[in-house]
């Protein structure tokens, strides 16, 4: 039995027996898209496979620095930080080549806190898509920085004067990717072994910025691959004495780091529901309405695509990242790029998500918005042409400018509540408000440099 062939609990038992595994690694993704997990003994794992296991619910109650949220209802001291119930997902089994024979299994939270589990959330949206007669496909691409030094060294200098892997900006440089093969080849091989092959991998336009495009998959698999890619690209870099970062904007002078999502829908006949060769740009009625829904709801779901304080540094004009909820045909100056193609490749690229977002949440919210558009036959604005940054946009097409604002628009969104659930919306918005409060009480370097002496 091979990890990529595992579909059932029995397959998994066979694999564990064949490899004579004494330990198994199990993890689940939190709201920030960070994997929390542990090694489990074989005995414990086999019992978890049948009956699930408990995992302290603080996994949804901590911020990225393990500080406890003080403003959430579903987790907190008032709930005693009880265990959340987790089920093991056999078909999530992956090889962990950096750890010899070890395998990795993902879990999903069930029961009282199921509404907060990012993977369960995406699964619910996909079930609703299936009820509407669609199967969602997605391909996610990441831009990320590789620093040619350890995180300890960077931490010691408070992340100042970062030394990127490769000097200067040389988008698509073959020199860079031929010299830095230890990292490039290492990651290609790792992704291959973990059954999440890269479709493209190149030097982006920024010192040390790389871009990896994961192959198109059914949406849940695409999000699994994306989340695992982020986790294990960081692991590989650190094992090489380097550091990979997926923050949205690590330097004001350089282009930010996107986590763009390419989306299409298959209809019941297995055809691409976005493709209609009789229409301009091959854009079917279904695709138009999907774009219409996503365009209309984008400000309301923006904080799932831009979930950190730093996300909003990326969303500025002139750096290839969008600033408005507009769309165009093959236009990279707006947030929705309709890509004319064939029955196989016709799709829309959602360019709002940064590399810092949780792929389960960004994808679930985009699909919810687009499917809402299909259900309600929402017509998008006219496609824009030329430089979208220069357009004067209507207030309802503006995107939130801060995490606080994004959390407020999410909370007020009836459609987000309908598709993502009240538990999720209330909890997630509270966690983003907490993040903004933490930031607001912090004095930044910029302020010190600007005001300390002169004001
Ligand atoms: N490849 C590109 O289109 C650049 C994207 C840009 N770096 C972003 O932040 O989204």
Automatic annotation (TrEMBL):
InterPro entries: Gln_synt_N_sf, Gln_synth/guanido_kin_cat_dom, Gln_synth_cat_dom. The keyword Magnesium does not apply. Its EC number is 6.3.1.-. This is Glutamine synthetase family protein. Belongs to the glutamine synthetase family. Residues 118-455 form the GS catalytic domain. Keywords: Ligase. GO terms for molecular function: ligase activity. PROSITE patterns: GS_CATALYTIC.
